[in-house]
Amino acid sequence: MAAVDLGCRMAEQTATKGEAMTYNPTRDAATAEHFSRWAEDAKTLDAYSLRYVIKDCREAAEAMKGWNPVREGFYIDQMLTYASELNLRNAQLPFGLRHRI
C-alpha cells in the first residue's frame, strides 16, 4: 500500500537525517508534523500519483475500520491532505480539464 510505504519512506528519511521519530506509527494519531510532511510531499507528486495515494489511503482506512480507529483516522487525515492538494490544483484548471476525485 502506498500509504504505508509513504510512511516508511518518511521514517527512513528522518532516520537518515539523524532526527528521532516523535511518534509511534502503530498507535498514535496524526500530528502537525505528519500534516506538514504530507503537504510537502503532495506538492511533489503529479495528479495521477495524488489520485493513487488518495485511493490507497481510502483502502487503508477501510482496512482499519472496526479494528483500529486511531489508524483509520490517521489514513483518513492523510487522504484528505493529499486530496486538498489535488483540489487546489484543480481550481487552477479550466472547468473542462479538472480531475474528479
Protein model, in words:
By secondary structure, the protein is mainly alpha-helical. The chain has a domain at 33-94. Helix content is 69%, strand content 0%. It contains four helices and no strands. The protein has helices at residues 2-17, 32-44, 47-64, 69-91. The two termini are 19 Å apart.
Write the layout of secondary structure elements.
Blueprint: H1 2-17, H2 32-44, H3 47-64, H4 69-91
Helix pairs in contact: 2-4, 3-4
Query: Overall pLDDT, averaged?
Result: 80
Query: How many H/I helices?
Result: 4
Largest sheet: none
Spans with pLDDT under 50 lasting ≥5 residues? 1-6, 8-16
The first-to-last residue Cα distance is 19 Å
Tertiary shape: globular
Structural class call reads mainly alpha
Proportion of residues in helical segments: 55-70%
What is the number of E strands? 0
Strand content: under 5%
**Would you list the SSEs in sequence order as H and E?**
HHHH
Integer-rounded radius of gyration: 14 Å
Short descriptors:
4 helices; globular; 0% strand; mainly alpha; 101 residues
